[in-house]
Amino acid sequence: xxxxxxxxxxxxxxxxxxxxxxxxxxxxxxxxxxxxxxxxxxxxxxxxxxxxxxxxxxxxxxxxxxxxxxxxxxxxxxxxxxxxxxxxxxxxxxxxxxxxxxxxxxxxxxxxxxxxxxxxxxxxxxxxxxxxxxxxxxxxxxxxxxxxxxxxxxxxxxxxxxxxxxxxxxxxxxxxxxxxxxxxxxxxxxxxxxxxxxxxxxxxxxxxxxxxxxxxxxxxxxxxxxxxxxxxxxxxxxxxxxxxxxxxxxxxxxxxxxxxxxxxxxxxxxxxxxxxxxxxxxxxxxxxxxxxxxxxxxxxxxxxxxxxxxxxxxxxxxxxxxxxxxxxxxxxxxxxxxxxxxxxxxxxxxxxxxxxxxxxxxxxxxxxxxxxxxxxxxxxxxxxxxxxxxxxxxxxxxxxxxxxxxxxxxxxxxxxxxxxxxxxxxxxxxxxxxxxxxxxxxxxxxxxxxxxxxxxxxxxxxxxxxxxxxxxxxxxxxxxxxxxxxxxxxxxxxxxxxxxxxxxxxxxxxxxxxxxxxxxxxxxxxxxxxxxxxxxxxxxxxxxxxxxxxxxxxxxxxxxxxxxxxxxxxxxxxxxxxxxxxxxxxxxxxxxxxxxxxxxxxxxxxxxxxxxxxxxxxxxxxxxxxxxxxxxxxxxxxxxxxxxxxxxxxxxxxxxxxxxxxxxxxxxxxxxxxxxxxxxxxxxxxxxxxxxxxxxxxxxxxxxxxxxxxxxxxxxxxxxxxxxxxxxxxxxxxxxxxxxxxxxxxxxxxxxxxxxxxxxxxxxxxxxxxxxxxxxxxxxxxxxxxxxxxxxxxxxxxxxxxxxxxxxxxxxxxxxxxxxxxxxxxxxxxxxxxxxxxxxxxxxxxxxxxxxxxxxxxxxxxxxxxxxxxxxxxxxxxxxxxxxxxxxxxxxxxxxxxxxxxxxxxxxxxxxxxxxxxxxxxxxxxxxxxxxxxxxxxxxxxxxxxxxxxxxxxxxxxxxxxxxxxxxxxxxxxxxxxxxxxxxxxxxxxxxxxxxxxxxxxxxxxxxxxxxxxxxxxxxxx
Length: 1022
Known about the structure:
The protein contains 36 helices and 27 strands. The strands form four sheets. Strands 10, 11, 12, 15, 16, 17, 18, 19, 20 and 21 form a ten-stranded mixed sheet that branches. An eight-stranded mixed sheet has the order 8-27-26-25-9-22-24-23, with helices on both faces. The longest helix has 40 residues, at 776-815.
C-alpha cells in the first residue's frame, strides 16, 4: 500500500516542550498537569533513552506502587474541564439582555414612585395602590421569560449528554512484568502500553516495538488512510502526521501489534493541546443577539429622549409645585417606558426560537443554544472538514483495472451492495469487456484473500411475527481492521468474488510493513489436494517488481516491458483522479507442502522457517492480475446540499488534512469547485505550508476570499481561515467531527459537530450537533433559520409599530392634553391618556398571542432563493423603521381622536358628554382609546406579515394568527365588561355606538397600510 506522508501538524514538536495546561480548571488539576516530566522530543530520541529518562524498564514496566505514586503526582489521564456552572447561575444568565435591563429600570422607577406616594400620603388617606402592581407584573413577566429559556437550554444539554457515550475505556499495560488491564484514566507517564488491533490509544507515546502496526489518525490529522508505524528514531523534527515512531491519544490501531512507552497524558497530549486552543477562544454573541442588543439600545435612547422632552416641557409650562407633581412625572416616565418596550418580546423570541429548536430536533439536529438556529440561517459561508463530514469515512473500491480493460463498481460505503459496469468511455470490444469483468472478479478475489480485515453485519430486530420469529428491521455494516483492506472485502462481495476462492484456507502470512509496502498470504486449496498458492497485494509500482508473468484473458504469459509501462500509466492516471491504488498478484506453488518449494529454508527441527523471513522466495515470479482504485467517497446526499447552499448564496469551503489531489477530487465531485479547477490545483487548492508562506494578514484574507479548498492544514490554519472569513464580514458555520476540528468549530459563528462519529471534544465545542451525521441537515437548518429570521422580522414589525403607536399616544396625549380635553382649564399636574396597567395589558396579553402566531407564520416566498444577509444588515432596517413609524403615527392619531370624541372641550367632542363629570369622561375616553389601540393592533398584525405585499395575499394562510386575534378580542371584551377587571384597569362598559366608533377608527390603520403598500409596489415596479 502507498504509505503517504501526512503534513498535518498541530505543533512542530512532541509533548515534551514544557507547555502548561491552561484554561478555567481547578488549581489541583492544573498543578498536576504542569508536573508532567519535561523531556526531549521523544521522536528524536532512541526508545531506550526515552525509557531511561522516564525511569522505567521496558521489560517489566512500572511497579504498581510507582504507578500509583505517579498518578497522584501527575493526575488522571483525562482532559481537564471547567467546573460545571451552577443551575442558579444558568438561570440568572437568562436576565442578561438589554431589553430586560430596560424593563428593570422601569420597574425601579415604578417602585420609587409607589414608595414616594405611600410615604407622602395624608394621615388617614388610602395612599394609592396597596401594592406596586405595575412593578410586580413586569417582574413576573421577566421571570416567566427566564424560566422558558432555562428549561429549553437544559433540554438541549440533556440531549447532548445522551449523545455522549459515557463509558469507561480500558487499556492493556505492562505492570510488574505482567500485562494488566486498567482504566485508561489511570495511565501515567512511563507506563508500557500493549497495543493490538482495534485498541484505542490512551495517551501519547514513543514506540518500542511495532509489528505491521497501522494506526487510524483521522480524528487528529484528518488523514483518511491509516498510518504505518515503526520504531526508527527520526533524524529531525517532523510534522505530527510524519512522526512514524509516535502514537497519539484518541487514535486507534487498525492493524498489527506494538508496545509504546507513555510520554504524555491528559492535557499534555496533542488532544489536550487542542483543548487548550479551545479555552483560548471565547464565545461571542450571535448576530441575532447583537441585533436585539442594538434594538434595545435604540429603544432605551428613544425612551430617554422622549421622557426628557416631556418632562422639560412640563417643567417649563407648569413647573413642579409639590410632591404629587414629582410622582406624576415618575409615573409618566414609567408609562413611556412600558409603552416603548415590548415586554413580551423576550418571552416571544424565546418561544419562537424554542419552536425552531424542536423542529430542528425532528430533523436530527440538536441545538445547544436557542439563538444558534437563527445564526445558521444567516450563514454566508459553511466551512467543512472532508473526512467523515463531506465524505463517508468509508474507503470504497470504485475502479478495477486489469490487463484487458477497466470496470467500475457502484455503491459506496461498507454495505456490500452494488454491481460491476464497464467504464463508459473505454473503447473495448465485447469480448475484451467481458474478459475485463472476469479479470476484475479474479483481482478482487485475490485482494480479499490477501487481507486481514473483517466485515461484520449488525442486525436490529423489530416486530415479532405470528409464528414467534423476530423480524429484522434494519442492519448496519461495520469495518474491523484497516478500512482499505475492508474495502476489498466489500468489493469482492458485490461481485461475488469471495465465492471464487471460498475453498481456500490461510496457512501463513508475510505481513505488510511500511518498508515492504506489500503483504502476502499462503493459502491451500481444500478442493485440490491442499495445493498451495501465494496471494499478494501492495503498492502497484512495488508489486510489479516481483511479477514476472501476467494473466490476460484467461491465459498466463510472460510480462513485457510494454505491460509494465501500461500498468504504471494506469497508476498515474488513477492517482491523478485521487484514487489510492493497490495491485494484486498470485503464484501457484504446485505443491501441498512448503518444504517442497524450491528455495524455502528449513530449520534445525526439520520444519519450515518463519515464512515472514522468506519473502524473497515466496514473492518471486508472481502473476499480475490487476489493481484497484480506492477512495473515501463523498456522501451521496451532499452534492445536492452543496448545490442548494450555492443557490441560497452560501459559499461552501472544504478544509482538510488530506492530500491536495484528494481534496480537489472530492470538492469537484461535490460541486464545491468545477472540474477545471480540480485539474488546476495551483489556482483552486491551498496547503497549510502555502498559507504559512503568505506575508501578512491582507494576503491571507485575499487568499481565503478566492480559494474554497484547503489541504494538509493544521488546526491553527483552520482557526485562521475561519477568523479571516469573519474579518471579511461573513457569518461562518464550521462543521467537523475530529478533534482537529474543535478549535475552529468553537471560533465560528456557529459550530456544528457530528453526533455519531464526532469526538467529545468537538461536541462540547459546537453550538449544534447533527445526531445523524448528515450534512444535508445543515441545509435544512439554514432553511429553518431563514424562516425563523423572517418571522422574527414580522413580529418585530408588529410589536414595535404597536409600541411606537403607544409611545406617540402617550406623548401626544400629554403634550396636547388641553387641546384634546384630557385636562381641564385651571387643572394642575400631569394626566396620562392611558394608564400603565392598560399599556401592560396590551403588551403582555393582547399583543402576545398574535406575535407568537406570527413566529410560526408560513414562508411567503422561497427563502433559499435569496442571498444571505450581511453582518451590516440590520434586523430592523430603514424600510422597517419606515413601516413602524408610519403605522405608529396612524395608530396614535386614531386612538387620540377616539378619546377626544368622548371628552368635553376637544375637537370632535360628542356634546352629550358635557353632562358627565370630567373623571367619568376620562374613564370612558381611556376605555375608548384602550380598545381602539387593541383593535388597531389586531389589524396591524395582519398588515405586518409583509413590507409591501397586500394583506389579502394569503390572508388565511396562518390559522394560528386568526385564533390569536380571536383570543385577544375575547380578552379585550373581558377587560371592558368584567366588573373586577373594570376596577383593575380603569375601564367602563361601552355602548354599541362606541363599538362602531372603535372598529371604524381601527380600520383606518389597515386602509392606510394598504395605500402605503400600493405606493411602494408602484415605486418598486419602476
